[in-house]
Amino acid sequence: MAVNAFERPAWRSKAVPVVLVVVAVLIMAMCTVGAEGPAARVIPVLIGGGAVAAAVWAVRRWRADRAEYERRLTAWAATEAVLAERLRIARDLHDLVSHGLGSITVRVAAARYEPGPDQMRAALDDIESASRETTAELRRMLTVLRDPAAPGPRAPTEGLDALPEIIRTALTAGLRVDLTSGELGEVTPGVQVAICRTVREGLANTARHAGPADVAVRMRRDGSHVVVSVSDSGPVPGWRPTPGAGHGLAGLRERVGSLGGTLTTERVDGGFHLVARIPDEPP
């Protein structure tokens, strides 16, 4: 029996109508109490015997239907788990490939503005380094996907200590980043990953749409929430946007939403403003 991966199986049993019929028949049998004649003696016996047989069949059918329902429910849960895993892998691949190749594309485009051969040589070195890092990470992930027993996680778990490298990569791509962080206190690992992904996606979005622009990254704690914002000054003169497929912000919104947070985006004074508000209450 095919299982719809998007709909939880419903519990139904064919024994229920039979039980209702048996109840109705028993009520009718009770109405014959006090009647006279041969039929009055035979009919209750037949009805009682039939009711017992129907009840035994209904119990067996109920058990069979219950076992079938549990089988379909198990298959549905397994299918949902596979779809969730595919979605997670798709997000990880997007973060890896899109950001890596995106930084390379932006660095190539920004190299057009370099004034001399030394700056051009430095840009080529940056492009080579980014290409090697992206290729190595992609090979590592594909190796683990082919061999589930391979050591290491499928995607690295980023913490706040990864932010300097994220900023360095953005600077390499030509962005002028100003990072300011208030006292965040203790931040849970899941929220740390979301913070890094928010900053990375915000910078990548600026690099694609605004080029080597000024970007302000702000992090602060607001009660039980951590607030992260990425704001740019708008496209630099002569910049031609290189938009992606649009999955980055959608995936980031899902990631933040899975933690109970919200992601908002808006245009402000010609620039792009992204804000993630994530609940975080360390134990």
Automatic annotation (TrEMBL):
InterPro entries: HATPase_C_sf, HATPase_dom, Sensor_HK_TwoCompSys, Sig_transdc_His_kin_sub3_dim/P. The chain crosses the membrane at residues 15-35, 41-59. GO terms for molecular function: ATP binding; phosphorelay sensor kinase activity; protein dimerization activity. The keyword Transmembrane helix applies. Residues 191-281 form the Histidine kinase/HSP90-like ATPase domain. Residues 85-148 form the Signal transduction histidine kinase subgroup 3 dimerisation and phosphoacceptor domain. One of its GO terms (cellular component) is membrane. It catalyses: ATP + protein L-histidine = ADP + protein N-phospho-L-histidine. It is an enzyme of class 2 (transferase). Residues 228-237 have a biased composition (Low complexity). Signal peptide: none annotated. Residues 228-247 are annotated as: Disordered. SUPFAM superfamilies: ATPase domain of HSP90 chaperone/DNA topoisomerase II/histidine kinase (SSF55874). This is histidine kinase. The lineage of its organism: Bacteria, Bacillati, Actinomycetota, Actinomycetes, Micromonosporales.
